[in-house]
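Example S7 (structure tokens).
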């Protein structure tokens, strides 16, 4: 039986644009907030949640704000991507890799004053299967049974070995809920985290208050305000005027010089796992011909696009696998820019002259890059009609839920989401039995089999042109000079506010 026991470590994680992280310790003491801990902090973000309930509402903006801050999970990722303890202080795995036994912390409480026990973990795991409605719930299907062996010991039995299950428990589906605290998840989240939900000023901000009864290290800041901006200029001006203290994700990289030349600010640039996807609706007849899909990929000059719409910042990847995943492979050479070949492929598939609806969310990067995509595809012989959809509500309903689109542009920031994004039931409507076989073999196999099959899956997606990968978002942050705990890289869903402090 394998045993995993690690002392509590600082959690750092996130996924840029729609989610960030924090990466260094923020408190100077272990038992409470450091001096000045009664201060407040304001962060500028771009995508306001449509709801606070990520069990029934898709989108990364909710876990960005709440996961790890209000809600906690049994396990989490550190900044290197390693799975480490959270509400579970240790765990063991049976030799057949199907039974996990977790030893839980004994001093955690929900913000409604109810103690966290193994019964709450059982309730939370089962509730994913019975009450969640988002596509991510499928990751819990492999669970056969969850039971409380004692108030502080949980046993989870899987139907088969799964490399992905414990990793998914670090994401939103692993969030722990109180059975008495789920009646109003959309407006009143209740968790065990270092912060408590205070208020939501719709269209403007979400306010969190420090949880002074928190079981772990108390955060430095007493109050955190997450302010939402749709306009990148307004976001930048908010930092320049002192309205906010952090731009969590720079939306106009060409404007960075106003901060890099000012000693009042620090600029952080790293990587993320946020793939900016030019998605195809594979249920549409025009996309059922691989030649059309390949033509679109080869009609796009990705370097020129990145230079034009994101000031050259970010990374070209050519697949759904970011460099921070173990099975990353540079696949930019699979579909190199070749306008003549793109035109020939469109003629051969009969798609030349076709009109495609490019339905874009009202997010700065999507709007900017969408114009470049339109121009380049029209040079290849397609007609592109751009529709702007308010984000998140209209885009989530029209594109993500109803698949009423031909193409779209969105950054996918859920970690290791290759299989969930490219499935028959997701908005890409991508049905490829060979891909599903590779993913199943990767999940059930040993470490080598996982690595080999995931690499094959990434390559197959690219060679089959299931969509086009425009670029990988950079982790671009601008903040007050004396703010500490900011992340270099952003690799998970959440922004860990508990690590932030002032020097």
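Recovered sequence:
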């Amino acid at each position: 039986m394998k045993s995993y026991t690690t002392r509590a470590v600082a959690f750092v994680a996130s996924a840029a644009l729609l989610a960030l992280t924090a990466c260094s310790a923020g408190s100077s003491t272990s038992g409470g907030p450091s001096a000045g801990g009664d201060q407040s902090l304001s962060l500028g973000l771009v995508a306001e949640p449509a709801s606070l309930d990520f069990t029934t509402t898709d989108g990364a903006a909710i876990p960005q704000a709440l996961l790890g801050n209000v809600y906690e999970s049994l396990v989490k990722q550190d900044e290197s991507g390693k799975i480490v303890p959270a509400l579970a202080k240790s765990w063991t795995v049976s030799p057949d890799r199907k039974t996990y036994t977790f030893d839980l912390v004994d001093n955690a409480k929900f913000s409604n004053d109810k103690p966290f026990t193994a019964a709450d973990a059982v309730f939370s795991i089962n509730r994913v299967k019975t009450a969640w409605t988002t596509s991510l719930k499928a990751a819990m299907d492999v669970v056969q049974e969850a039971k409380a062996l004692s108030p502080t010991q949980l046993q989870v039995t899987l139907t088969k070995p799964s490399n992905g299950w414990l990793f998914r428990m670090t994401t939103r589906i692993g969030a722990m809920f109180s059975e008495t605290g789920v009646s109003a998840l959309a407006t009143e989240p209740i968790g065990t985290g270092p912060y408590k939900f205070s208020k939501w000023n719709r269209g403007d901000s979400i306010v969190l208050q420090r949880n002074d009864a928190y079981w772990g290290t108390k955060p430095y800041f007493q109050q955190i305000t997450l302010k939402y901006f749709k306009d990148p200029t307004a976001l930048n001006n908010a930092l320049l005027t002192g309205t906010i203290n952090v731009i969590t994700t720079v939306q106009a990289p060409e404007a960075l010089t106003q901060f890099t030349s000012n000693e009042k600010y620090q600029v952080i640039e790293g990587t993320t796992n946020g793939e900016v996807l030019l998605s195809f609706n594979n249920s549409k007849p025009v996309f059922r011909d691989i030649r059309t899909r390949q033509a679109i990929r080869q009609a796009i000059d990705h370097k020129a696009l990145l230079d034009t719409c994101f000031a050259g910042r970010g990374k070209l990847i050519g697949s759904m696998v970011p460099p921070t995943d173990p099975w990353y492979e540079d696949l930019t050479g699979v579909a190199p820019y070749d306008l003549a070949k793109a035109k020939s492929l469109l003629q051969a598939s009969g798609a030349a002259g076709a009109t495609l609806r490019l339905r874009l969310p009202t997010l700065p990067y999507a709007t900017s890059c969408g114009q470049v995509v339109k121009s380049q595809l029209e040079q290849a012989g397609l007609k592109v009609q751009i529709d702007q959809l308010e984000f998140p509500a209209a885009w989530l309903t029209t594109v993500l839920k109803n698949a009423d689109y031909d193409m779209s542009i969105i950054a996918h920031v859920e970690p290791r989401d290759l299989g969930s994004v490219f499935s028959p039931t997701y908005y890409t409507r991508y049905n490829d039995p060979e891909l599903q076989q590779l993913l199943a073999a990767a999940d059930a196999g040993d470490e080598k089999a996982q690595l080999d099959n995931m690499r094959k899956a990434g390559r197959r997606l690219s060679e089959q042109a299931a969509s086009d990968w425009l670029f990988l978002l950079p982790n671009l942050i601008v903040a007050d000079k004396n703010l500490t705990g900011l992340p270099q890289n952003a690799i998970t869903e959440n922004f860990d506010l508990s690590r932030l402090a002032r020097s």
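Notes on this example. The chain is about 25% helix and 25% strand.
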